[in-house]
TrEMBL record:
It comes from the Bacteria. This is Aminoglycoside phosphotransferase family protein. PANTHER family: AMINOGLYCOSIDE PHOSPHOTRANSFERASE-RELATED-RELATED. Pfam families: APH. Residues 29-245 form the Aminoglycoside phosphotransferase domain. InterPro entries: AGP_Transferase, Aminoglycoside_PTrfase, Kinase-like_dom_sf. It comes from Nocardioides cavernae. The lineage of its organism: Bacteria, Bacillati, Actinomycetota, Actinomycetes, Propionibacteriales.
């Protein structure tokens, strides 16, 4: 839950001043694992989105995360990537007590939990990810961080495929393959996209933007699809991304992303539902057994 000492009223006043029009109303946006996300309506009819880094441990690193998101949005301005426009930043949280980033509100909406991703949507995702990877910011972003920390390399007690997890840890213990440094969203997936029908109208949540292997972005999108919709859409997306990018999947990055969903020893998974744990288990098993997903 957000910390109660965040001054929402001060944040709204700051947002109104930054846009030159007072905030008249607001609603909480869905999602927000790391932040409080508010959709704002202004007196002149404009709409904006306010991110407040209110959730730990991300709040502690809020200045870095919010600054990176602003820099990524500035870098995407004028490109074919439909990112929000950064309006104002209070990285140190001087106004509300938590880092704040005000940005434009894009058209479209996230998919509902039970909405399917058919071939047209999966193709749109693959094409957009190639477009993102084609961008060349003037200043490269930080090197990517692996979320598959070595302390996570413990076969989960709930796994039906313990041998596959052991093989995955062996893959990660070997040197990473060479790659061409590429501009990454680093949290690309269907949950961070806005849609109008089968068309993508926006890609949001740029706080993890990095430089690294393109297939790590694709792997993360596939893992999210596998957890939400099963292995079929995840496989389909990777095949479409491989065709659109003209490159082949590399098991190292697919394994790295899947293992990243494990919690450190002694911690609970971010998702505790048995069906989601089972889907992660099946996805990791598939990735290890059939790395090219052919």
């Amino acid at each position: 839950m957000p910390d109660p000492d965040v001054d929402i009223a001060a944040a709204l006043a700051w947002a109104g001043s930054a846009l030159g029009s007072p905030v008249t109303s607001y609603d909480a946006l869905a999602g927000g694992l790391t932040s409080t996300m508010l959709a704002l309506r202004h007196d002149d009819g404009a709409e904006s989105v306010l991110r407040l880094m209110t959730v730990e441990p991300w709040r502690t690193h809020g200045a870095e995360l919010a600054t990176r998101e602003r820099e990524a949005q500035l870098a995407m301005a004028g490109t074919p990537v439909p990112a929000p426009t950064s309006i104002a930043l209070d990285a140190d949280g001087n106004v509300a007590g938590a880092a704040a980033h005000l940005m434009s509100r894009l058209p479209g909406a996230p998919l509902e939990e039970d909405e399917t991703l058919g071939e047209h949507r999966l193709q749109a995702m693959a094409d957009l990810l190639v477009t993102i990877h084609d961008q060349r910011p003037a200043e490269p972003f930080r090197p990517f961080q692996s979320w598959a920390w070595e302390e996570k390399w413990v076969v989960p007690a709930w796994s039906q495929h313990p041998g596959s997890w052991r093989r995955a840890f062996e893959v990660l213990a070997r040197p990473a393959p060479a790659y061409e440094p590429t501009f990454l969203h680093r949290d690309f997936g269907h949950r961070n996209l806005l849609w109008s029908g089968d068309a993508i109208t926006g890609v949001v949540d740029w706080v993890e933007t990095s430089t690294g292997p393109a297939w790590l972005d694709a792997a993360h999108a596939a893992s999210n699809l596998a957890l939400a919709h099963g292995t079929g859409p995840a496989q389909d997306f990777l095949r479409r991304y491989a065709a659109a990018s003209g490159t082949d999947a590399d098991v190292h990055w697919l394994v790295m992303d899947a293992v990243g969903y494990l919690p450190p020893p002694g911690k609970r998974p971010l998702f505790g539902r048995a069906d989601l744990l089972g889907r992660l288990d099946d996805w990791l098993d598939l990735v290890v057994r059939d790395p090219l997903l052919s």
